[in-house]
Amino acid sequence: MQDFIFNISTKILFGKDQLKNLPGEIKNYGNKVLLVYGRNSIKKIGLYDDIIKLFEKSSIEIFELPGIVPNPRIDKVREGVKIAKENDIDFILAVGGGSTIDSAKLIAVAAKIDSDPWDIVIGKENPKDAIPIASILTLAATGSEMNSGSVITNEETGQKLGWGSEYARPKFALINPEYTYSVSVYQTAAGTCDIMSHTMENYFTLNDGAYLEDRFAESILKTCMKYGPIAIKEPNNYEARANLIWANSWAINGLLNAGKFTDWSVHPMEHELSALRDITHGVGLAILTPYWLEYCLDNERSEKIAEFGYNVFDIEKTESTFEDAKKAIESLREFFISLGIPENLQKEGFKKEDLPIMARNCINNRPKPEINGFKNLKEEDILNIYKMAF
Ligand code: NZQ
Ligand code: ZN
């Protein structure tokens, strides 16, 4: 196990009766709040009205940035920065899923610099400070509420890029599983796959001696596999929604990669899918992951993939680790398909000519011309995986 520092400062307020604590938590930081949210969902579930009423009662001044869309755009961030600067906003509250929280994070740090927010995403400018931010999470998927990362799309350059800074880490997250009852079957499935992908990106490494992290990871995967299907069939099942959303937070907050070297492989490949065709992040991940594992499968890696099969899918051990690994990958694919995920990229509207463009962009958007994850991937490997998934 490698050396590591583990420090998650985000306070979690979890459960059905936490909203009453919101004004008090906000007042620890400020009183002029920019409320960042998506399109209709928070109004439909009544959460928007509840927040506004609470703010009025607590004399919190409210400014609003509605209309964040999935695969959130830089233009909307620019709009938020303008509101924040013109009104001396001293706190940002994101209410929604990952797209909303990711936008709020960039607004928070970009409001403290003079240059364009995109400069932060491309690493031309370093965050030096931030308006404190927090979130009310309404969808179990990205774990953005408890980490320091964010992913933003620039339609002009055709890029969807991740960036991160400790300044952007939310001060607190209010997580009420009931707010996720209204999440559609499609988004519940996509979110479950996203949580599983975060877990697997951290899990699939070689010989790092991080035994404990891998057992944590297997528990998170099993939790998703138990409760994802239940939440799809019974949207108002509190136990299912609660376990899924808590798994979401722990899959990507630093716990699973503590002591490990991880260079995520499927996420950069997926970000090119949603940059080009605006598809749902979790769906893209679920299509690619089994093909990626098939591409990785060789004598060196079969043991780890087989272990995943034994511990997560209860696959029976045979004399052939290689065959067991294949069964593990097939079980994963079957699970994703059982959630309604299409098995290939064509079904998501991709064309053959998209594949080399995405493989090139995937490499061009990285500091190094390869991905050094479970298996090293160069441009031609990425293209091969896209072709398999096509
Ligand atoms: O716009 P509204 O009306 O709010 O609808 C949203 C949106 O259409 C809807 N939704 C959210 N909560 C709901 C709800 N519908 C009904 N009831 C509710 N309670 O769900 C749709 C998707 O929302 P979005 O925020 O886009 O989903 P998600 O949380 O999956 O976020 C995806 C984005 O996060 C990035 C992805 O790349 C993608 O851009 N990621 C961010 C990460 C991070 N910051 O750590 C890591 C991830 O790997 C990921 O890359
Ligand atoms: Zn993800």
UniProtKB/TrEMBL annotation:
Residues 10-177 form the Alcohol dehydrogenase iron-type/glycerol dehydrogenase GldA domain. GO terms for cellular component: cytosol. It comes from the Bacteria. Keywords: Oxidoreductase. Residues 188-389 form the Fe-containing alcohol dehydrogenase-like C-terminal domain. PROSITE patterns: ADH_IRON_2 (PS00060). GO terms for molecular function: alcohol dehydrogenase (NADP+) activity; butanol dehydrogenase (NAD+) activity; metal ion binding; methylglyoxal reductase (NADPH) (acetol producing) activity. Gene3D superfamilies: 3.40.50.1970, Dehydroquinate synthase-like - alpha domain (1.20.1090.10). Coiled coil: none annotated. InterPro entries: ADH_Fe/GldA, ADH_Fe_C, ADH_Fe_CS, BDH-like. This is NADH-dependent alcohol dehydrogenase. It comes from Anaerococcus octavius.
